[in-house]
Amino acid sequence: MAGVQKTNEVRSHGDLVRDFQHLLRTDGPLVGGKNSSLGEMISALTGKGVDVPPGFATTSHAYWLYVDANGVREKMGVLLAEWKSGRATLSETGHAVRNLFLRGHWPKEVESAIRKAYRELSAKSGVENLSVAVRSSATAEDLPDASFAGQQESYLNISGEDALLFACRRCYASLFTDRAISYRQAKGFDHMSIALSIGVQRMVRSDASGSGVMFSIDTESGFDKVVLINAAWGLGENIVQGTVNPDEYQVFKPLLGHANLLPIIDKKRGEKAMKMVYSRDPHRSTRNVPTSKAERAAFVLNDQEILKLGRWACVIEKHYGCPMDMEWAKDGITGELFIVQARPETVQSRRDATAAFKTYKVTNKGRILTTGLSVGDAAVSGHLCLIESAKDIDKFIDGSILVTGATDPDWVPVMKRAAGIITDHGGRTSHAAIVSRELGVPAIVGTGNSTYVLHTGQEVTVSCAEGDNGFVYEGISTITTQTVDLAGLREVKTKVMLNLANPASAYRWWRLPADGIGLARMEFVVTNAIQVHPMALVHYDRLKDQKAKEEISRLTAGYDHKPEYFVDKLSHGFAALCAAFYPKPAIIRMSDFKTNEYANLIGGAEFEPKEENPMLGFRGASRYYSPHYKEGFELECRAIKRLREEMGFTNAVVMIPFCRTIGEAKKVADVMAEYGLKRGENGLELYVMCEIPSNVILAEEFTEHFDGFSIGSNDLTQLTLGVDRDSGELADLFNEQDEAVKWMIARVIAVARRKGCKIGICGQAPSNHPEFAKFLVEAGINSISVSPDSFVAVKKHVVATIVGVGQVGAAAAHALILSSIASELLLVDVKTDLRDAQVHDLSDVTYSGSSSTRVRAATYDEAGQCDVIVVTAGSKYFRGETSIGHMYQKMGIIRGVVKAMKPIRSDAILLIVANPVDLLTSLALQISQLPPSQVIGSGTFLDSVRLRGLLADKAGIATNSIDLYVVGVHGNSQVVAWSTATIGGVSLDKSLPPSTINHAELVEECKERTHRIIQAKGSTAFGIGSIVCSICSSILLDKRNVRPVSHLQPEFGCCFSLPVILGRKGIIRTIQLPLSSEEQAAVAESANTLGATIERINEDQ
């Protein structure tokens, strides 16, 4: 390689040292990723307002000069070879190689270039012996698929030429730390081809202020619309090393362009127990000191500084064209902010946002032992292994869950062998978090006490599956997983929204193509994030419960005005929910606690009456204008106003629960207006829950005061039927599909649609009961809101139908049921007794197995609205009947079936499975008026499968290793494409010469087998059923399999079989086989004959 050639010639200053402002990101081979990126930002982004401290970088030429001047190359090669062969340990090898660099001397031209560049940098800054940061930048560092996090060393607060040269020598040596050698070996990088550049950068006086790390993407979910910022007091090494629990800020990128908005989604105050500052010790440039109580209680950055960094992150991301991992620092002397590093993010950005992803659910949870920040979204159970010091890592038990204070790069070998990781310290941008994320190991960082409360050998469950907070549970919990596959999701007329309550888990679901949030419950945020009764905050001074006062005082520390705590927490909680699907609507239901639930909040008992039946008591709208709660409702309104008008989340829709009368609706609207929320102003929409019979009875009047309804089917069922939904004795009577409840729902939908008012439903019933969803859609509902884990099932609710349920139709239905590829399977037949019997028989298959497909009888009209329509209808051949007469009879059946289904849904796929299949497929295409890509016949698929099977048996190989197609017009004139056949990618003639397998005999045997099956049992029902299932699977799941099916060949004006790619929209394209001239002629001859037959038939009509 060019980079490892001997470099004995004298280099110019520019070859050995480059000022940052003369570097671009393409200079990675010369100065490494870190330094080339700094140069790129100074060159390209300074003019866009991004401030980067000046500096210079030594080049790879300087490194190789140092290596060769000290004879390092040959000695290093020998040492590494001994390690690879097992004759030396990693520790011995690393120590020996590092000593080669540390004991070396500087080539004169390299030393002179570094001294000169340092003097120029000091002069430019107006400071003699400028304090600088000295950082390593390997030429294989910060590549898109390898982060090299912390593999080489950095040295801060270096002052003076001699000290700088010593630090540079140590940087060279750090290219061969044990961890760096191990990491490069694992990633497949050649140790001898990687050089090291040294970045020398003006030191930002963050020791007198703060510094941190930020990502232009959410590190755990990959949500690409937020900037995540971590901040701590002092120099930034503590955040990277994970020795402090930093502040965490989240900024919403799409709203950063509005100068009048404050789109800070969240602010979490970290403990920040220590800070790194300059040291006066000549042997140590930095030291850690405890932070003051004031520093621990304060945020490192103010709002404007947070927004400034957020905007810089967007500028940098846009310039680089990918999500970025950046480090920043604030100068405590000048107050300036700087970006000191930027590199591509290497984990979330490499995931396909449209691909399937796995979700985890933890049940049967034990006692919570400790909590922290979750890294990743997985969960794992196992035994703990507590290791407090890196010197004891050899005691780690492989496959255990590692518990330690914090990790640095020395811990990487152990982290790779861990099932999970728990640390006392660190944030989402710490070393432990970055490496765990890259390894795909679930981790909980920043617990504060894990090494104190946990012990080796203890059985625990580590859960990162519940949002931003990670939990360590006692014992082995039940962990279940679900793969969420977004492939093949289609557009539907009825909007499908999500029920979300937990802001901490909102980003987990951003990939779902939901139409917004249909229900965000305020109670969840109040209970979990706020915990305090709002009236206890308003009237804190009059509280009698001293314990409650102390707890409120602790929770509201840092807030000058206690009600502001409620407004701040609530607005930020809902900001995360609104951000996840912005600009789609997020319907926020105002508080709907019952009095007994309110009383359980801190300080709540003093403000709530005791009621015999809280379900029908002082709840919902009645509280909002009551003097007993109106001040609390004011805090709710202030939070929504801040969310919409200060943060900018105008997609927030307000919904009022349990509004009993029109009078209440007016009172609530008046109170909201009094508190700054007026319907219609700034686009504010006001919805009401439809959960009381009065909401239905007076629906028309309610539409005058609200923009939309959301049907609360639980309460509406309870109050319509007079059944306590919590009563075990009456459980059988509680039924959302009761005719009285359905009458209520249908009526309110009809009124809403007539009055132009939006209406949806939130609840699990539509996802649990497809027939209920069907009822809602037919009634005209605008939206259905479901839990995230039900979303794909509801969105993918596909319906297949089989028209004609004799032997072939029943076999096809059986195969489809076992595969569970359709949510519903409709059976249609003119013989209704047969149809109903097949429905009952096939339903038993679903009950006895694990199939999720529901089978039911249906009409032709319903069949025409399905995703896939399989027509197997035909007629039996009667003795004495002519072939022509039988053909015309079958044509009449297909013509009648297709016409009976019209108008057929425009995106339906029509599959004809009846002979003569090519003729009937051509006829169905004419009558249905569907696009040619959506009308197909089973064609020669089964013949191809059968022939492959016979060939596989004779050759003694697996069927799926053979690629062989039967093409052309199905029947006696069909053609075997021997010329294109392959086995394992090798042509058939080469892998199995004709002398081994007689082609003609094999074809004849295939025909004879088919004849024997039909003669004995009347049809090849099971074989056809399997290929119907295969075709439907490729279509409904958008698999894009290649299948030989009958479809329109425009050149011949008729349908016959050639291989096609099948997907959700039917035929994506035809595969043009390179047939031999004889095969082409045979196909053309049979096609012309079929075309002529069709012309004669059309003339006869």
Gist?
It is an enzyme of class 2 (transferase). By secondary structure, this protein is an alpha/beta fold. The protein is built from 39 helices and 44 strands.
What does this structure look like?
It comes from Byssochlamys spectabilis (strain No. 5 / NBRC 109023). Catalyzes the phosphorylation of pyruvate to phosphoenolpyruvate. Residues 801-937 form the Lactate/malate dehydrogenase N-terminal domain. This protein has 1101 residues and is of the alpha/beta class. The protein has seven domains: 13-202, ATP-grasp fold, A domain (Dna Ligase, domain 1, 2-Layer Sandwich); 206-349, D-amino Acid Aminotransferase, Chain A, domain 1 (2-Layer Sandwich), CATH 3.30.470.20; 358-414 and 429-478, Phosphohistidine domain (Glucose Oxidase, domain 1), CATH 3.50.30; 499-684, TIM Barrel, CATH 3.20.20; 688-788, Alpha-Beta Barrel (TIM Barrel), CATH 3.20.20.60; 795-935, Rossmann fold, CATH 3.40.50.720; 937-1011 and 1028-1100, L-2-Hydroxyisocaproate Dehydrogenase, Chain A, domain 2, CATH 3.90.110. Helices cover 39% and strands 20% of the residues. It is built from 39 helices and 44 strands. The strands form ten sheets. It has an eight-stranded parallel β-barrel, surrounded by five helices. α4 packs antiparallel against α5 (90-102), α15 packs across α18 and α30 (807-819) crosses α38. The chain is globular and about 105 Å long.
